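[Meeting: bench + compute handoff]

Bench side (C.D.) handed over the final construct sequence. Compute side (W.E.) agreed to return the predicted structure before the next meeting so the bench team could plan truncations. Sequence as handed over:
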Amino acid sequence: MPLVGIITVSDRSSSGLREDASGPGLKIWLESRGFIVSRLEIVPDEIEDIARALIDSCEIHHMDIVITTGGTGVAPRDVTPEATLQVVDKLVPGMAEAMRAASLTKTPHAMISRAVVGIRGKTLIINLPGSPKGAIENIEAVAPALNHAVDKIKGDPSDCA
C-alpha cells in the first residue's frame, strides 16, 4: 500500500492554540483502508513553510502520497495552493475537479475551494480542506483512483482498464 504523509496547514494548530483534528482524522480514515501513514506534520500558513514540508515529504521521506489539510479557501492567509503550485511538476486537475464536484453535493461553499492536486517526482500531492468533515469527504471522492495513480506515477506500464 502507498506510504502517506499528512501536513496540516494551520497557524493556530502550529502555534499550539488549537488541537489538530484533521490530520489525525485523515490518518485514521486512511489506515482503516490499508494506507500506511508514516508522517504527520503541522506547519503555519506560510508559503515557504508549506513548500519546504512538501519537498521534504517527497524528496527526503519518499512518500507516495502527500496530503495537505487546510489553507485551500479564499481567506487572506490561505496559501496552500500557491505553495503546492511552486513545488509540483505536473497538475492532476481531474482529481481536484472530482473533489469539488463531490463537495458541491453537500455544500455550496465547495465552489470557493482552490485545492490543487499535482505530482512532484514520484509523489502525488493532494490539497484538502481544513475541516475534518470536509477533508474526509474530499479524500473519499478521489480514494478509488489513489492506488492506480500511484502505480502510474511510479512508471507502471500496464494498460489502464
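W.E. noted at the follow-up: The radius of gyration is 14 Å. C.D. will use this when planning the next construct.
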